[in-house]
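input
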Amino acid sequence: DLKQLNIKVARHYYVMGGYQIPMGSDFALRPNVLLKSDLAATQFDLNADVLWNKMLWAGVSFRPQDAISP
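output
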């Protein structure tokens, strides 16, 4: 029954920032962070990738207490 649904919508906030660090002429390291919060709980992701020749990248992401992913 639809009258029994009790859905509460919470506003979410996201802040993201990063920097590109040149490493020679062909490579760049790009660390960044993503902060997520609904003012009741907060999570953050730490990420880094390596950019080659301004064309191909590979990286890793880490979320404390949760996961590491390529």
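quick obs: DSSP finds no helices and six strands in the chain.
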